[in-house]
Structure formats: structure tokens, C-alpha cells
Amino acid sequence: MTAAGRISDILWRNPRLLLVLLITPPALWLGIIYLGALFALLAQSFFSIDEFSGLIRYEWTLKTYGDLLRPANFDIIRRTVVMAALVTVASAIIAFPIAYFAARYARGRWKAVFYLGIMLPLWSSYLVKVYSWKLILAKEGILSWAFETLHLTWLLEGYLAIPLVGGNSLSVSPTGTFIVFVYVWLPFMILPIQAALERVPASMVEAAGDLGATPAQTFRTVLLPLALPGVIAGSIFTFSLTLGDYIIPQIIGTSARFIGLAVYQYQGTAGNIPLAAAFAIVPIVIMGLYLWWAKRQGAFDAL
Amino acid sequence: MSIAVSFQGVARHFGAVRAVDGVDIDIAEGEFFAMLGPSGSGKTTCLRLIAGFEQPTAGSIRLFGAEVRDLPPYRRAVNTVFQDYALFPHLNVRDNVAYGLMIAGQPRAARHRAAEEALEMVALPGYGARKPSELSGGQRQRVALARALVNKPRVLLLDEPLGALDLKLREAMQDELKSLQRRLGITFVFVTHDQGEALSMADRVAVFNEGRIVQVGAPEDIYYRPEVPFVADFVGSSNILPPALTGLPRIAAIRPEAVRLAGTGLRATVTAASFLGAATRITLDAGGTRLTALLPRGAARPEVGAAVHLDWDAADLHQMAGGA
């Protein structure tokens, strides 16, 4: 018997050993390199920075978290959370019909077209897409041109004049940031909703109709609850990706900072690792609270 | 008696496939009506046409005299027990059963009471708080039944509801469904490919083949007086005898249990014999025609290869329309 054959025999007799051998390397990678590094970063948030020397004081303190609540920093958090929530809601609304169509009606070739259409944008560089949007949204961009051609410039200018959402042009307005966030993260919402809807048998929808539910009632009482785990899964992506992104707000939108950008700047040029770490904790806490709330609402009951 | 469901020249084509191809039926109110046929014969499509999940390509469908062609499922006074039960996994048993009442706007207390009554009717009292995933196949089937019946439909549609159950459970449910139907007096339209189920439960059976109804009648008629070879062959097993063997002008069918071994009569050779418990089945060859006979317990069992004579009562031999 060959050595390879003997090893096969040993593993066949001890399936547990095979499992241990297979799972140890990824477990080590996850445990040490991934989670270990994360906790090392998070531990930093309990240190503080000496304001005179700019050096890190390695004593346990909650002072840095106090800094987070200062108006300038708290504004960053609030702005980011509001943006992430809006992006998530908009993505869910846009994604649902697309996912529903793909799960219910697309067959064979059309299914392939659907997957290609959703995935294709993910294959091209994220930066290329963001800069393309800058051109689309710019004052001389295609969108302004379209509004002009349709004699609707007054509408666009009227919208841009609205405080909080407007600006000089779409590409330097919060609306622009919002549009690009939704565009970039939309596939991450469509795919989990589509997967969830795919698992709902057609007879379930027919049963609701059979029992007297109009299509709208069927959507509210059967389809939406059954698709909810998918919506939550998608919202985890869109919400957390928006919370952490630092590139899109730099390229599109106003100079107002987002959490990702704050982390980037504090750990880089400012050298304030503790504050950067404290900022990094914020999305983790928010996501934890969000999932806890979703579970309590029964979002995972249909899993 | 008034007509509950009426089909006139109903057809449903899917592209080139003629799933239902010109069906006429009148189902009386309070009747237990079975649609029997092999898979792809159009029986399930007919059921879906009654429920409103499919639109007819041609013809007219009436429920209690009213044309329902353009009526969506949620406006029809019929309810369905689905083949896969289609219980809502995110709702517990009580809310599943009360779903129709919830949609109809009944207050919570009233609909919970009605759901509990319906669960008692299907012998599942106190199961309201469980999730469908915690129930066995037979229990889910009962919940699906309760969910349909709680709305007091005028017609209950059942799409192979016993298909997924094991034999013992299926037989128990057959009796239960039958007595439930008698008690409630609701019209039951039952789709099945199991001839035993159709014959034992239904008042009338429609046998489907290739999108058409080939025979409608009481179970005894279907079984003993098949009008076409397809029915003779599909419902139970039948011997189909050419005129040469019977002396009759047309081909004829006879049930295996009506064939006797006798001192005189049709000459045949025994080709196989198998003991079935309650009876012995022997296979015979009569001048090139294959026959089976079911011999009762205690009858002499011939050897394979033996030459025998076959006899039967003339009344058991039934002439059919159409060719072989």
C-alpha cells in the first residue's frame, strides 16, 4: 500500500482528525491575524494621547471616548449614521423589485443576464466607478446636460438650493454622496434578498391569495417577512460598508467628514491612534445594536 | 341540487403544450368529486383553474353560476389544501390557521377562537403555539386542512393532499376526510393520481388523460364499467380481451378478480403465479393475449406451465368504445 493510501485509510477511520486538520489553519488565521489584530486596535481606544507631546499614554482610560462626544466628533458620527441609514433604506427599496423579478420570473438565459448585470459593476475598480460618477454628477456633467436638454435646469437648481442636501453641483452635495453610495453598495443588497426570495415556494404566495390576501397584503404579511432575513443580511453590508467607507465622501460631496475618513486621518497624519480606534469602535457597536434589535423584531425567525 | 363548479369547453395551453384541452364538468354542491389521472394529464391544472391561479385559454368557468374567468384567487369563495401544504414558516400554527380571518379583518380574539375550533376539528387541539417546522407531515397536512376550512369555503380544493404521507396515515386520513366532508357538507374537489384513493373517497370520479376527461362516473362505474381501454388500464388492473377470445363484437375488459379457473371455457397456460397474502395472482397466456387472474384464498393454485380453462360471469365482461 502506498503512503498516500495509508493516510487516506487513517483519515477515513478518523473523520474527526480530518475535520481538525482542515479547520485548524483557517481558525488560526481568523483567531490570530484577523480578530487578534482587531482587538489590538480596539485596545488602543482605551489609551489616550498626551495633548502636549502628542505621544500615546499607555494607561487605561475612557478619556478618548469622552472626546468622541465632543460636538465636532459627534457630528461626524451622526452624519455617518444618518447617511448609512438612508443608503440602506434606499438600497432595500430599489433592490427588492429587482431581486423579486430575478427570483420569481427570470429563468435560464435571463437569470444569467441578471447575475451578470448585478456582478459586472463589481468586477471593475471601485475608484473608476466613483470617478465616473464624479463626471456624471459634475456641473458640466451628463446629468446637468440632460436636465438642460429637457428644459428642467430650474428643477435641478431648485433642488441644489435646498440646504442640507444641496450644494454648488450634485458632485459636491450630500445628495451626490448618497447617490454614489447607493450605486456602489446596491449589489450587496440585491443578492441576499434574491437568495431569500428564491427559497419562498411559489405555493406560499398562491396560498396567501387563496386565503383572500390581495397582492399588497400578500407582500406585507408573507413575502416581506420571509424575505426579511435577506433584507437584514443586505442591510448589514450596505450599512456597515457606508459606515466605514472613506473614499467616496472624499471624492464626491462636501468637505464634511465621515467616520471612515476620521479614522483614516486620526491614525495617519494626526497620529492620534486612540481616537482613531475609538471611532472604529462606533460602527461595531452600532452594528451590534442593530442586529440585536433585528433579532428581537423576529427578523431571523423565518431562517 | 345546484351546480357548484361548472366547466364549459375549458382549455389551458402553455405555448404548444395543451395542459387542459376542452374540458366540460359539472360538480354538484356537496359532492365529493375526484379528478384522477396520471401526472401531466391536466387534473392539477383544472384544480388551479378553479382556484384562480391559472386563467383559461378558452371556455367558461362558473362557480355557483357566476362566471369567474376574470376573478383573482382572493375574490373566490374557494380554498385550497396544497400538495406541499404551503404553511407560512414565520407564523405559528394558530396564526397560520387564522390567516384568512386576519385578512378578512376579524378581531384577534374571535379569530383565535375560530382557529382553535378548527384545530380541534382536525384533532390537533392545543397545537396553536407551535411552529409548522415542529410538526410531522401528517400534522402539517391537518393544519393546512384547518387553515382552508376555517374560512368556511363553499368549495374545498385538495391537490394530492395525502401524497406525502405514509400508507397507514394515508388510509386513516382518507376516512377522516370523507367523514369531515359529510359532516360539513362542503363540496370537495380532490386531485389524485392514486386510483384507490379516488375510488374509496369520491362520490364521482373524473378520469383525466392528456388534458381531457375520458370518463366521469361513480367509483363502481369507473371500476366495473370502463368506457375506454385507458380507464380499464389505469384504474386498477384490467384484462383487455380482443373479440376473438370473447365472441363479442368489440374489445372488452374484465377485472382479474372476476376471472375463475374452471373445468371448461377459454384455454390458457399459466406463466407465473405469485402469492399476495389475501389472494394469489396468476399470469396466463391465452393464444398470445396476456391475462391476470386473482384467485381467492383457499382456491387451488395451479403449477406454472399448467394448461387451464378460464371462465367468468357474462355481467363482469364489459365492452368498450374505441379500438384497442
Structural description of this entry:
The complex is a heterodimer of chains A (303) and B (324). In chain A, strand 1 and strand 2 form a beta hairpin. The longest helix of chain A is centred in the N-terminal third of the chain and has 34 residues. With 303 residues, chain A is mainly α. Chain A has a two-stranded antiparallel sheet with strand order 1-2. Chain A starts with a helix and ends in a 7-residue tail after the last helix. Helix content of chain A is 74%, strand content 1%. In chain A, helix 2 packs across helix 14. The mean pLDDT of chain A is 89. Chain B contains 10 helices and 18 strands. Chain B is elongated and about 75 Å long. Chain B folds into 2 domains: 227 residues, Rossmann fold (3-Layer(aba) Sandwich); 83 residues, OB fold (Dihydrolipoamide Acetyltransferase, E2P) (Beta Barrel), CATH 2.40.50.140. Chain B is α+β, with helices and mostly antiparallel strands. The mean pLDDT of chain B is 90. At the A-B interface, helix 10 and helix 11 of A face strand 6 and helix 3 of B.
